[in-house]
Amino acid sequence: MVDREVRLPPIVDLTKPNDARVYDYLLGGAHNFAVDRELARQAVAAMPVLRQVALSNRAFLHRVVRVCVHAGVRQFLDLGSGIPGLGNVHEVAQAIDPRCAVAYVDVDPVVHAHGQLILSDTPGTALINEDLMNAEAVLEHPAVRGLLDFDEPIAVLGMLALHFVPDERDPEGALATYRDALPVGSMLGLSHPAGDTTAEGVDEAIDVFSQGHMVPVARDLERLTGFFEGFELLEPGVTRVPNWRPDREGSEDVPVNGGLGVKSSR
Ligand SMILES: C[S@@+](CC[C@H](N)C(=O)[O-])C[C@H]1O[C@@H](n2cnc3c(N)ncnc32)[C@H](O)[C@@H]1O
Fold first, then answer.
1. Cβ < 6 Å from ligand 1: which residues?
2. Beta strands of the chain (E only): which ranges?
3. 80: CA distance to ligand 1 center in Å?
4. pTM, whole model, 2 decimals?
5. 28 Cβ partners below 8 Å, 6+ apart?
6. What is the pLDDT of residues 214-251, one digit of tens each?
7. Can you tell me whether residue 16 is helix, strand or coil?
8. How far is CA 70 from the centre of its chain?
9. Which of 50, 153, 165, 203 has the smallest C-beta neighbourhood within 10 Å, fewest atoms?
10. What atom of ligand 1 comes closest to residue 57's alpha carbon?
């Protein structure tokens, strides 16, 4: 029996926790199962700020998307999108301009299975099951090429995704490939768990998440700033995400850094 009112894609295994569904649960979404909620509860017990991490990151994502659309960008390439459920990029962008197009990319076949059902009737969206590190494959994918016009500005987003890419895989190299494929006026928005945090329970939470299939790695602010090479950072630069153009006051130290840059020259 399926818990909650979720249409169940055939690939889904109810006995194994899935990181994207755990994240969906932390956000208050409906695309998760008992096994995911159990892992989320263990992780939150270890690291109490974790739910706030998910919520603050999502609020940052929304602010970034709005800034991009108000700057005239109408196209998005969302790398490591997670399950494109409630409050995702196309909803925020298309609420401002229904012509906005969003190509979602996620390596997880479970995300793909859930996402295909969610997006099946949504114009201006595509979802591909691909590793963001295979930048050429993403950029040449027929669904991406069919949706996005690479002669017009595109916002590439990598929100809470690159921490699943270890250094050996050269995340800077993949980001350079994306950057070089984009026209001037394109944007890069990134968020990443901060290495320099005093938040309680980070190591314990990483241990809990390692029961899932992806092992996260935190990086410091300087390293994340380097990920924006070739982009001019918009104010206030790379900061803790709640402090990036906040629309409300917050006091908690949410250990996630983020920023938004614009490609201003070839
Ligand atoms: C924490 S979720 C972030 C969701 C969304 N970007 C957000 O900020 O709300 C991270 C997602 O990144 C995906 N991911 C991890 N490594 C990836 C890779 N190498 N290529 C594509 N997706 C990846 C995971 O499958 C997961 O769905």
1. 19-20, 23, 57-58, 61, 80-82, 105-108, 111, 131-133, 159-161, 164-165, 214
2. 75-79, 101-106, 125-129, 155-159, 187-193, 232-233, 239-240, 256-262
3. 3
4. 0.93
5. 86
6. 778 889 999 999 999 999 999 999 999 999 999 877 65
7. coil
8. 20
9. 203
10. 8
